[in-house]
Amino acid sequence: MRRTGVAGYVSTPGNRGAWMLRRDVDDRTEFVMFTLWDSLEAVKAFAGDDYERAVFYPEDDRYLIERDRTSSHYEVEEG
Prior knowledge:
alpha+beta; two-stranded antiparallel ribbon
């Protein structure tokens, strides 16, 4: 994920950072990708016009048991 998703995020103009969160739950490990962007246009530059559709890479099939097909987006009100 560092070589694909995280690298893709941080190399896209308008990305302000990417964090890969993980936790172990029973015999599995869950990951959440948390990113900050300058604008929705910057998100679209990474994800495409259908920016709520999650981006996956071919090698993800080797590791993912389950996957969220959509991404949630929020606006930062303070920070």
